[in-house]
Amino acid sequence: MLEAACSRLKDWAGDSRTRELRLAINVSASQFRQADFVDRVREALARAGAPAAKLKLELTESLVIDDIDGASRLCGR
Known about the structure:
Helices cover 53% and strands 13% of the residues. It is an alpha+beta fold. The protein has a two-stranded parallel sheet. The two termini are 25 Å apart.
């Protein structure tokens, strides 16, 4: 799903009608907890040539509440 989302963002970025759109994808707890999750997202964006600022990752509330400190670290806060 991540690869498809990044590819779509790349397409949208090249079209004046859609270049301002953002795309949100849901991230499961198991994906988020993978040690290389951030690297995978960065790599998918780079491979597609997609603008990172247009990708929104949505985390479930239960995931964040279960590990608020870990979620904050991964999100760069």
